[in-house]
Amino acid sequence: MTTVWKRKDLVGLKDLSANEIKLILDTAKSLQEISLRPVKKVPTLRGRTVANLFFEPSTRTRISFELAEKRLSADTINFTGSTSSTVKGETLKDTVRNIESLKVEIIVMRHPASGAPHRLAEALPVSVVNAGDGINEHPTQALLDMFTIQEKKGNLSGIKVAFIGDILHSRVARSNIWGLTKMGAKVVVCAPKTLLPPQVEALGVSATTDLDQAIKDADVINLLRIQTERQSECYFPSIREYANSYQINREVLKHAKPDVLIMHPGPVNRGIELSSEVMDGPYSVILDQVTNGLAVRMAVLYLLSGARKKVVEK
Ligand code: CP
């Protein structure tokens, strides 16, 4: 079945169909070779303007979106919350309406409030891409994770992916759960009981507090950062105790499949979620994830821009 992209926004994977996810991954595959050319630029978004609004720190996502926009020849505006008039009390909606009045067509936004991109997308005609909202979703991270798994393992259907770490506060885990289960993968989440969301199994995953059980038969181990900045209370006695029970290191990997992939969305707490030898070792595809993020974000911008063009032409 051929799917045509019709959405104005990409705010999450919860509402996307498997065909729409496949369309983004296939588009990313076809755009991947642009970054291997001597001149790494195509005119696809020439004359279009994209604003990157980051109200939370970011390294990978912000740089990756900005580079994707440049590769596609878009004009870009970069905006960080801490240096803007939002600190003087301007509302998010008013800030975005001002940016929109400069004829910006796409807004890429990271915000600490869950649902902020969804509210803007509903209220304003500009296209909105969610670059991470609170503890809700981080759709392009999940898409690049799926792209990497597909690239390394050949497919997503039937693949077992174990998420280890702070599932409760993880927008990466949520988007991956929506995406992977739609694509036919098996997902297991593993953490201390306090870091597992209540009734997480209702999302179509299995849950355990036992690391060995989670990684047994896993094709992929995706590690999630311990997010001290989002934890208002103590979820485990100490970081050392967490690492003793949940760190992926050479010893723990003896219980995993010999061709297991080690993934992490970053930023990594080196020596906590995983040991340095595993992070820099042969199973790790953490830097491949970063590389693939560029093609995935180019695909998202390309598809959204095409959908906008059709709406304007009608
Ligand atoms: N994975 C991710 O979102 O990283 P950044 O916070 O550096 O963007």
Percentage of residues in strands: 5-15%
State the oligomer: single chain
Number of helices: 11
Profile the largest sheet.
5 strands, parallel
Task: Please give the share of residues in helix.
Answer: 25-40%
Task: List the helices and strands in order.
Answer: HEHEHEHEHEHEEHEHHEHH
- CATH homologous superfamily of the largest domain, by name? Aspartate/ornithine carbamoyltransferase
Describe the strand arrangement of the main beta sheet, using strand numbers. Answer: 7-6-5-8-9
- Point out poorly predicted stretches: none
* Number of E-type strands: 9
Can you tell me the overall shape?
Answer: globular
* Gyration radius, in Å: 19 Å
Label the structural class.
Answer: alpha/beta
CATH topology-level name of the largest domain = Rossmann fold
Bound molecules: phosphoric acid mono(formamide)ester
Mean pLDDT, all residues: 94
Distance between the termini: 25 Å
Please identify, by name, the CATH architecture of the largest domain: 3-Layer(aba) Sandwich
The tally of domains stands at: 2
In CATH's first tier, which class of the largest domain applies? Alpha Beta
